[in-house]
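Hey, quick one: can you model this chain's 3D structure?
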Amino acid sequence: VSAQYAFLDPRRVIAEDRSHSQEEKRFYCIGRVGEGIMTVRFTYRGNIIRIYGAGYWRKGRKIYEEKNKIYR
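Sure thing. Here's the predicted structure for all 72 residues.
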């Protein structure tokens, strides 16, 4: 499964990564990919999105569910 699909989720959450953004702005895209919620770490290089990390993390799922008002 490719990380870029998280950006296609219409309910995706984009947030700035303030704890790791010393020299360049970094961001998280949290979106549904297949059956899971993927957190993608990315930055912008000019007009290009550069993905530098991705995974299925509990914290990302929690943020996604809170922002989209999904209750278990």
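One thing worth noting: Residues 3-67 form one domain.
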